[in-house]
Write a structure and sequence with these properties.
This is 2-methylisocitrate lyase-like PEP mutase family enzyme. The protein contains 13 helices and 8 strands. By secondary structure, it is an alpha/beta fold. Helix 4 (about 70-80) packs parallel to helix 5 and helix 5 runs parallel beside helix 6.
Amino acid sequence: MPQTPTAAAKRQALATQIRDARFVTAPGIFDMISARMADRMGFDCLYMTGFGTVASLLGLPDAGIATFSQMVERVARFADGTTTPIVADADTGYGGLLNVAYAVRGYEAAGAAGIQIEDQEFPKKCGHTPGRRVIPLADMVRKIEVAVDARSDANMLIVARTDARTTLGLDEALRRAEAYRRAGADILFVESPESEAEMEAIGRRIDAPLLANLVEGGRTPMLTPQRLDEIGYGMAIYPGSGFLATAAALDGIYGAIKATGTTNGAATPIYPFSEMTRLMGFEEVWAFERRWAE
């Protein structure tokens, strides 16, 4: 059985890549099938999406409904079942300053390589959706300061997200991003810029690692990694790609079963059962049974 990197080693690997300004691409994971599938493909980082994780866990909107306990359990399961560093969504930090401290400590203990905290009011709303409101800048600055102080590993990345662009404009979002950087955030996440020109402006203004949130059907243009790197971004996440593709596949195959009573001839691709057993680790189970069989 291959040796799994420690959580500290995974944090160090990702932090080094960010600090060395080597571009990072991170697909969204939302359950253990998506986590295992992405893990074996050699990405530098995986991103635990709040939308997808809440949807797969509870079947509910990403609207501040999932609790810290529910989310940290998912972080631990993802981190334990993969070898790739994970940056995990922690919404608003699940409350006030004390909650933020516990969130950072909990995510770090669970094995995350980074934690994302946003400046929305509670209950939060999913990015790229309307009606998001933000807390006062000074309150979020204190949250970032607490988050930085709470981590025990300096390689535990603090990702500070501002949702100010949609309701308060780009200038306010940039002002907040600069303040969050001064407070100690390692990565700045200006949510929902609405054009390539806005993304260029963010890259010119913010002298820090920047994260681009690329959502199919969202507000932000889907730029290539090469273009993002050119304009000053250091990381791109694709939080919805996995669960949107999964939903499309399920819709197709379940529709075929409903319409015809069979999957024979269905247009939706079917992942080979033999590959799924391998992905889930059945070969290790069979090897164990052969070794210890009477």
